[in-house]
Amino acid sequence: MIITNLPIWIVDVAGSAAMIVLSLMCLRLALRLKRLDQSNVIWTYLAWVCYALCLFAFSRGAGHILKQVLVMAGRVNIWESIRPVSGSINTLSFMVVSSVTLFFHRTWIIYRDIQNDKLALQSLSDELLFLNRHLEHLVAERSKEVAVSERKYRRIFEVSKDMIAVTGRDGIMLELNPEGYEMLGLKRTERLNGKRFKDFFSEETDWERIEKMLENKGFITNIEIELKRSDGARMGSLVSGSYDRGLPVQEETIHFIVKDIEQRRMMEKQMAQADKLASIGQLSAGIAHEINNPLGVILGYSQLLLRNEKTETDRYNDLKTIEKHVKNCKSIVEDLLNFARSSKPEIKTTRINEAADDVLNFILHHSKLDGIDIIRNYDEEAPPMLLDEKKIRQVLINLLMNAGHAVGKKGRISLSTEYIKQDNKIAIKVADTGYGIEEKNLTRIFDPFFTTKPTGEGTGLGLSVSYGIVKSHGGEIIVESKPGTGTLFTVLLPVVSP
Amino acid sequence: MVQLSAMKYILNKIIRFLPVFLAVLFFSEQAMATQMHGGIEGVVVHQMAHIVFAGAMALLIYWLRQHGLVVNPGWRQIQYAAVFFLLWNINAFIVHFLEEQVDILDMAQIEPWQLRLQAQPAFEWVAWLYYVVKLDHLLCVPAMICLYSGLKRLLESPASESRPGKMEGS
Predict the structure, then answer these.
(1) Are the C-beta atoms of residues A396 and A359 closer than 8 Å to each other?
(2) Cα–Cα dist A486/A472, whole Å
(3) Is the distance from CB of B57 to CB of A101 less than 8 angstroms?
(4) Which residues pair with A243 in a beta bridge?
(5) How sure is the predictor about A247, in pLDDT bands with cuts at 50, 70 and 90?
(6) Of the ranges A171-185, A355-369, B112-126, which is most confident?
(7) Alpha-carbon gap: B121 to the closest alpha carbon of chain A (Å)
(8) What ranges do the domains of chain B cover?
(9) Nearest chain A Cα distance for residue B41, angstroms
(10) C-beta neighbour count of A252 within 10 angstroms
(11) What are phi and psi of A74, to 5 degrees?
(12) Distance between CA atoms of A476 and A495, rounded to whole angstroms?
């Protein structure tokens, strides 16, 4: 078919010219973009794309226009010689455009990374600027918070009623709270340097045990030990502690919390003692009742027989011996009943100072207390009170007789009374400077028939009876003793006003 | 600055060696020691360049979409430019292919403004196809217009246009 090539010619020439113009316009825009932000790698990339497209548009557009002009002018031979060069440049320009285009992905990733880094840097810069501007304020605020926190924990450390001790790994004490100083009997002014915590342990094996447990577990909880105060006194304690591994630059420390359980242990001992005595009392009362009746019969019949017997006969003497021993037995039974508090007290108004003084005078008359200093110290404020005076006197006789026996030939016995207003109690104290009571005997002294005196010198019922009498009055009897120093008996009686 | 210096250096080199290059290109005699590259080789290389160009444009479209840039109007226009260039390459490939099919289609300029397109029987449509695809500037000029429009949009709001969209997720 034969067809006009005018549309092809127009589109070819106009299109080529348009391509050249448009590629230049694109390059101009791309360069303007690049000038906006020289460091923007994407704009640089677009500029390179536009350069490549310019090369493409020029090589192709110029070639096409030249071809059309030469063909129209009948110079086909000239075009034929130029054609391979034009085509080659055209091919090369395609490759250049393609090559530049293929860098887009990598360029974009670089651009994105730069942008992210830029943002991160900007954020850091903002943060630094903020810190720089507000540093003083922030430091002041933080210091205040630290000070408040430090004060709070310092107060806990200082006002704690348990010992808080900080030691090094080797057990050398670094810090000790005021209660710790108190518990260990140290002066607050005393410095801790060099003191080891284990030196305050009664048993060295306790420390070794604790050290091993800390090594294995890193902490210990409620380990019962006995601490030794600086004055030598022993104190039952519960120890808890843990390792503080601290910061890498800090030394490892051990934090201990020590609870004083001596009071609790004493209470437990006293309760056990009271339980034991109550049981013995019940047993004694039962036996005494059972023995008392046959003793009454024996005594009655022996006295009936004595009435018809002439004196100075052997039979009379035998019956008298029976009567005497039965009476002794009855006295013991009566003491047992007193201990068991089964006999009813005869209450009457008593002035305790007068009663105590009478008892002391009676003892001074009937016992050999020469060479012993007697000290009386009565509280004049002691009010009259309802008591079984006879029995309280018996208590005081027992205590004073024991004191006299403990002191021996030389020493001091003091008898004092004290009115304790806040508890509304009277304390009667009998103290001596005798040989004291050994610790192992302290829990047994109130047991019936317990005595350290040689056989025949004591029945071992004096303190038991006294205990029973004081308990029947709702009171307490407390003993404090140190072997070689002396003993103090304190009778605490509630004041019942007449 | 470094880029500009590099460009100047390359341009200087090209200008210096251009006369030698042109002399070798137009006045060279047959050199027996080297392989000849006449005939169809030039067309094959040119066709390959069109394929590479089309592939580059397809990749560009894919990357623009992958990075979520097409949500921005400027980059969307550049994507359209890439689509037109891709179509233009296919079109140009067909033109060159048909020009080589002398057994099917015979073409000659018989008058300054007249063409004779002689197709084999049953291949008349090839003559019409050739006539249409010869109007290839109808694809590459819109591609340049889209590129221009895209660059203009980028220039109007460069900060927001260079921000990645949702598709990239960053």
Answers:
(1) yes
(2) 27
(3) yes
(4) A254
(5) low
(6) A171-185
(7) 12
(8) 42-164
(9) 11
(10) 10
(11) 75, 20
(12) 13
B164/A97 CB distance under 8 A: no
In the chain, the amino acid numbered A49 is V
A100: nearest CA in chain B? B56
* Residue A106 with chain B: CB contacts under 8 Å: none
Q: Where are the beta strands (DSSP E) in A206-322?
A: 219-228, 234-244, 253-260
Between the alpha carbon of residue B90 and those of residues A54, A99, B58, B139, the distances in Å are 21, 18, 12, 10
Distance from CA of B87 to the nearest CA of A (A): 14
Q: Which of B63, B137, B170 has its CB closest to that of A15?
A: B137
Residue B127 φ then ψ, to 5°:
-60, -45
Task: Give residue-wise pLDDT tens across range B21-42.
Answer: 565 555 555 444 545 555 677 7
Q: What does the pLDDT read at residue A408? A: 83
Q: How far apart are CA A328 and CA A321, in angstroms?
A: 11
Task: Of A364-378, B11-25, B84-98, give the lowest mean pLDDT range.
Answer: B11-25
Mean pLDDT over A122-140 rounds to 90
CB A363 within 8 A of CB A430: no
What pLDDT, in 10s, does the model give residues B55-111? 999 999 999 999 889 988 999 999 999 999 999 999 999 998 888 888 888 888 787
Query: How would residue B2 be classed by pLDDT, with cut points 50, 70 and 90?
Result: very low
Q: Are B148 and B57 in contact (CB under 8 A)?
A: no
Q: What is the ipTM of this complex?
A: 0.76
Angle between helices B73-100 and B124-133 (to 10 degrees): 140
Q: Provide the token pair at A313.
A: 């006969």
Cα(A416)–Cα(A489) distance, integer angstroms: 11
Q: How far is CA A123 from the centre of its chain?
A: 46
The DSSP letter of residue B135 is -
Report residue A172: phi and psi, to 5°: -75, 130
Q: Which residues of A touch B98 (CB under 8 A)?
A: none
How far apart are the C-alpha atoms of A325 and A328, rounded to whole Å? 5
Per-position b or e across A320-341, b if 16+ CB within 10 A of its CB: eebbeebeebbebbebbbbbbb
Give the separation between CA B92 and CA B84, rounded to whole angstroms. 12
For chain A, give the percent of residues with pLDDT over 90: 26
Looking at chain A, the whole-number percentage of residues with pLDDT higher than 70 is 97
Of B28 and B44, more confident: B44
To 5 degrees, how large is the angle CA A142–CA A145–CA A146? 85
**Both tokens of residue A22?**
């448009």
Taking the C-alpha atoms of residue A410 and residue A324, their distance in angstroms, rounded to an integer, is: 35
Give the C-alpha separation, A299 to A293, whole Å.
10
CB contact under 8 A, B155 and A33: yes
**pTM score of the predicted model:** 0.47
**CA B48 centroid distance within chain:** 11
**Which among A30, A6, A51, A57 has a CA at the least distance from the CA of B140?**
A57
CA angle in degrees (0–180, nearest 5) for A17-A18-A20: 65
**What's the mean pLDDT in A264-282?**
78
CA–CA dist A226, B132 (Å, integer) = 111
Q: Which residue of A has its CA nearest to B50?
A: A94
